[in-house]
From TrEMBL:
Keyword Nucleotidyltransferase in record: no
UniProt similarity note: Belongs to the short-chain dehydrogenases/reductases (SDR) family.
TM ranges: 12-32
Organism: Nocardioides hankookensis
Keywords, alphabetical: Membrane, Oxidoreductase, Transmembrane, Transmembrane helix
Protein's recorded name: SDR family oxidoreductase
Residue ranges of domain Ketoreductase in the record: 10-195
Length: 261
């Protein structure tokens, strides 16, 4: 193994792994050779993904995880380390978004959403990054959103949460410089996932119309979760000595018909 090569065995943790981007990422990392630990509250859904990984010859572990609960995060970290060994890769993907006008949303709900999207990521960092620093290697990838740089209206705390998440990630990049641990951001544009599927139909239609009004939906194409999973796999597969700090992934617009000249 060369000086700048990645270690052969790199156990990976994926949160929010029961569906959407998280499930796709677990499958992609397993296909790239990573033993994968899947964490979410819906462990039955995670088990379905883990079965697909094992059937394809991969290694997968599933444990319940609620990133808003410090004891749950600690227990999860202990369990997956016992299953797979020292964790080399952490994908912080757990999150939620609900519709709402900011000045009408109850502060308690706003705070719960921020706790999930920011403090939940920090609990994960506290559980895994100290060990990475001690071993002098590791990758932490924060799944953000394009709302972190182009806020969308009527999504309650979501824009604030992703702005805060990216602020934490950028600070970590500086703090971790020279430790061998890389903190990276993958910033998806509109993506098909289960997020938003529990919205009231009329509320969802109103929010989408407001996105169009403010120029946030210039075309109808959405990304598939596999596109984000491939970007995440690229980030953690970069050789030692290379740091992919930020990758933005956006849906390509449909081909436009040429106007007659």
């Amino acid at each position: 193994m060369g000086k700048y090569s990645q270690p052969d065995r790199r156990p990976a943790v994926v949160t929010g792994a029961s569906s959407g981007i998280g499930a796709a990422t677990a499958l992609a990392l397993a296909a790239a050779g990573h033993p994968v630990a899947l964490g979410a509250r819906r462990t039955d859904k995670c088990e379905d993904v883990a079965t697909a990984i094992r059937d394809a010859g991969g290694e997968a572990s599933v444990h319940a995880l609620d990133v808003t609960d410090g004891e749950s995060v600690t227990a999860f970290a202990k369990a997956v380390t016992a299953d797979l060994g020292d964790v080399e890769v952490v994908i912080s993907n757990a999150g939620a978004v609900g519709p709402g006008t900011i000045h009408e949303v109850e502060t308690e709900r706003f705070a719960r959403e921020l706790d999930l999207n920011i403090s939940g990521a920090h609990r994960l960092v506290r559980a895994f990054v100290p060990g990475m620093v001690e071993r002098r290697r590791g990758d932490v990838v924060f799944v953000s959103s394009d709302v972190a740089v182009r806020a969308r209206p009527f999504m309650s705390s979501y824009a604030a949460g992703k702005w805060g998440l990216e602020g934490m990630a950028h600070a970590m990049q500086m703090e971790l410089e020279g430790t061998g641990v890389r903190a990276s951001i993958v910033r998806p544009g509109p993506t098909w996932s289960e997020m938003g599927t529990d919205w009231d139909v009329d509320e969802a239609a109103f929010v989408l119309n407001q996105w169009v009004r403010f120029g946030h939906a210039r075309h109808p194409h959405f990304l598939k979760p596999t596109a984000i999973a491939d970007a995440i796999t690229t980030v953690v597969s970069a050789p030692r000595g290379v740091h992919l700090n930020l990758i933005e992934v956006s849906p390509e617009a449909p081909l436009s018909e040429k106007e007659d000249q």
